[in-house]
Amino acid sequence: MTIAVATLFLFVAHAQAQCLFEHLFLEDASDTALFGSSIAMDSERLVVGAMLDTGAAWGSGRLHVHRRNGSSWQRSQILEAPDGDLTDMLGSAVDIDGPTIIAGAWWDEENGERSGSAYLFEDDGSGNFVFAGKLTASDGLPEATFGRTVAVDGNLAVVGAPLHSSDASAAGAAYLFERDESGWSQVAKITPKSLSAGDRFGISVDLEASTLVIGSSWADEERGRVHVFEIGAGGSVAQVAMIQPPAIDPGDQFGFDLALDQDTLLVGAYLDDEEATDGGSLWFYERTAMGWSLAQGPVLAGLGEANAQLGVSVALQDFHALAGARYASANGSPANSGLAVIFNDFGSWQHTGVIGSNTPQTDSEFGWDVALDAEQALYGAVSALYEDVLIEDDGSAYIIDFNDEFCGGNTIGDINSDGRVDGADLTILLGEWGVCSQFYCAGDLNGDGLIDGIDLTLLLGSWS
């Protein structure tokens, strides 16, 4: 199986000099590979999970590791579980931190049907990842879906099992593992003080230094909760906060995904109805000496679209935040083609860009998963076109470089993405002159909601 790499430009609303850097997809994919079902990146390496890819057996799942080579990305390895089997789904979740990759195989049958497992791969010193261990729950049970979510930071890893329960109530659990000289071992099973049947605690996890955040988005009539823990010496774990905004409603699914960066926590509520039915919302929390408190929320993207599901996936680093809206179809795009939304912190978090394909596809679910590292962003879409033929659930991954002004040759002013700034682009801009009255206007080059002399000057300044 090979991966094709192509340049594919994106439209960007309310932002400048941001476009698609590369498009990764499986050229000879199996029929339901779900390439892009999970994604993670760290500096010069990224990992794309394809949980229904055919490895040892159909649906055993594989991980596709890429390395940055100059201005492009090249696949360097394909990783498989050494004991992979039918529908184990390695790649249901993935994370990477430096020399360590962790990936879930949530339907592995190690402790019974769909009990789940997670696999670790470590850099052997030569740049190649090798198998470093398999993780399972000490009290593993059938249907627990251990490996549905994973996170790794240094010598600590956490694995979510959101359906774990001895009475099939789907209360959920999470497990903390630590690496020492002898390898990885479980040091704690984690459940919150408020655990109840149906909570699905562990549906989302993130880990940074000694802070662990875990979501249970089905809790409290699916209002959702996020639990914050601190990890002490010897793997001791203490809950320090339970977060739920007062304005959240039943069914909003607060905590379905979350991201932690230093003292900032981003939480998605992907079925929130604040802007539209199931339109979704974001919530930002800050840690101070007094603990965790709501800094801003609900934060919306102005999509105004029912079932957009903003916040189904989120990523956070420094002053940048990303959120997937996997069923959005703004600006006349095909149904469920999906978008990803950029937010930046200017003292308050503001929506600064919307990213979607210039060739959007029905049901591609762009934004299924998102990842962010430095000035690069990675997006997953679980269905994709290859040579204009939809291979059902094949999947894709897309890479953005926010610093690349030309982005494969597409300068500001190249509205139609043909590699030139000319009369065709000028015609489009003049045809939209005035207030941008729709969700996205290609001629609004400076993202101020107006197509005016400023945009004309930008276009003429790039004339070719």
Any key phrases for this structure?
3 helices, mainly beta, single chain, 2 domains, globular, five-stranded antiparallel β-sheet, disordered N terminus, 464 residues
Question: In summary, what is this structure?
Answer:
With 464 residues, the chain is mainly beta. The chain is built from three helices and 34 strands. The strands form nine sheets. A five-stranded antiparallel beta sheet has the order 1-3-32-29-28, with no helix packed on it. The protein has a five-stranded antiparallel beta sheet with strand order 2-27-26-25-24, with no helix packed on it. A four-stranded antiparallel beta sheet has the order 4-5-6-7, with no helix packed on it.
Summarize the structure in words.
The protein folds into two domains: 3-410, 7 Propeller (Methylamine Dehydrogenase, Chain H), CATH 2.130.10; 412-464, Orthogonal Bundle (Type 1 dockerin domain), CATH 1.10.1330. The chain is built from three helices and 34 strands. The chain has helices at 219-222, 423-431, 453-461; strands at 3-6, 10-13, 20-26, 35-42, 45-50, 62-69, 72-79, 90-97, 100-105, 117-123, 129-135, 149-153, 156-161, 173-180, 183-190, 204-208, 211-216, 225-231, 237-243, 254-261, 264-269, 281-288, 291-299, 310-317, 320-325, 339-345, 349-357, 369-373, 376-381, 384-386, 389-391, 396-401, 434-435, 450-451. Helix 2 packs antiparallel against helix 3. The relative contact order is 0.12.
